[in-house]
Amino acid sequence: GQNIDQPTEMTATEGAIVQINCTYQTSGFNGLFWYQQHAGEAPTFLSYNVLDGLEEKGRFSSFLSRSKGYSYLLLKELQMKDSASYLCAADNYGQNFVFGPGTRLSVLP
Amino acid sequence: GAVVSQHPSRVICKSGTSVKIECRSLDFQATTMFWYRQFPKQSLMLMATSNEGSKATYEQGVEKDKFLINHASLTLSTLTVTSAHPEDSSFYICSARDSTPSGANVLTFGAGSRLTVL
Fold first, then answer.
1. Reduced to 3 DSSP states, what percent helix, strand and coil does chain A have, rounded to the nearest 5?
2. Least CB–CB distance from A96: residue in B49, B106, B108
């Protein structure tokens, strides 16, 4: 079967660091996507990890461990505009993409 | 980067009518496009995979006669909600994967279509 799990909700303070975890179990796996989605809008691409390790892109970093079926998205220097849902998705060799339930992040002043 | 255009962004229709939503890849060809449905405060639910020149692959529980998908060209897929009912009201999003060398295999989403059935 295919299953992706991530926390439903998280809260953090402006300026802080937050880590959003994602665990996955899929029949096929090529890589792990992270997307940001603001309410009422389409998801926007944040990162795509194929190899193990940490990839940094500005305030956002994403980590992947293929052997553990685990990924996380790290957000630094949180801003109010970072309040959104964060979706992780497993790439099944492009045949389909299995999305997690999404983590709703609330950034408080 | 890759751009996916989706229209209309909002549509209101009467119960019993049909609504067509278009999804276009603007600067790349997409042999496969994906259609999702999203309820408020919930994640994306894959409805079907649209394949250019062949029948769409529907996820379990999705009525293919209700949600007609046509992928007539490498840049256009359409979703038609037939005989719409209020329970079909939802946010529908399409996506396509840019598999070109510069596309980095990123899955790009359209802006979404909010359907309200009265």
1. 5, 60, 40
2. B49
